Amino acid sequence: MAFDSATSDFTDRHLLGIEGLSPIEITALLDTAERYVGQNRQANKKSELLQGRTVINLFFEDSTRTRTSFELAGKRLGADVINMSVANSSIKKGETLIDTAMTLNAMHPDILVVRHGEAGGTQLLAEKVHCAVINGGDGSHEHPTQALLDALTIRRRRGKLEGLKIAICGDILHSRVARSNIHLLVTMGARVRVVAPLTLLPSSIGKLGVDVFHDMKEGLTDCDIIMMLRLQNERMNGNFIPSIREYFLFFGLDYDKLSVAKPDALIMHPGPANRGVEIDSVVADDFSRSVIREQVEMGVAVRMACLEILAQNLQEERETL
Asked: Are 197 and 214 in contact (CB under 8 A)?
């Protein structure tokens, strides 16, 4: 298999998180993804770059957007893509993650895309398999490709990340999307704010290089980008908010709260959006401001870039053995 692109500045075998990546590594991933945006808009979207390679999507948690995006990315690169349904697998019968790794090794995949409900689950698999691993989201820890697609969306619209005022609003405590975005945006020189009730903020948030607000209008003042987050009800054990109605009143994005941001501020959401909970429907559908659909488009390009770069790194590693 011959790769057309030049050697990337991202040389790791796996992509398990954004934390610890350098600006050069992040830029390499974004620059590669930029090439695929144009390809995906052509009539013929397919290449044979990964012909003969096998990509397995192993999702322990349900996901329509991320799994479909990775599946489409792999197929557009010519790879053989397999979706493993955990609900019907031996994992549900008591197989451990280590046993799963041994089984996967026997299948000789090239890239494994893993979503797991526990933080560190993807890391454990990466330590036991012989292929490259991409973290498709692990617990409340990280979701690196979501942060990359968000960054690509912003960079294409604003031409840069450095110096932008970006507010991340909502359930910071349970959000892997928030963590990955904070790591990426701070690393790339953005001025990041988090806006949330005290009950939905991790105790260590002050160590991440962000400004913390508990009032939406204060937090959104003069912002370039507003990134809303979904309430992670499935990860909540206890009462973190008084009621959905009260949460929307104080922390849901509507035009009144949006009025203090810059007039051309962009609205983002990783999806699926709970309309009337974290964002008003008319705001979500305001295509002069909302880039939610564009985020989905960028997701395919970013995941194609990750598959290409990791396949190239794996090939180079194997050739040196």
From this structure: yes
Quick one: pLDDT at residue 1?
46
For residue 212, the surrounding DSSP H or E stretch is strand 211-213
The first and second tokens of residue 47, run together, are 């290449």
CA-CA distance, 155 to 167, in Å (whole number)? 16
Lowest mean pLDDT among 5-9, 26-30, 135-139, 285-289: 5-9
Is the full-model pTM beyond 0.85?
yes
Contact present, 185 and 192 (Cβ < 8 Å): yes
Residues in the chain: 321
Any residues with CB less than 8 A from the CB of 226 and at least 6 apart, and which? 166, 167, 169, 220, 253, 258, 261, 265, 266, 267, 268
Nearest CA to 165 out of 195, 196, 191 is that of 191
CA dihedral 90, 80, 58, 131 (to 10 degrees): 100
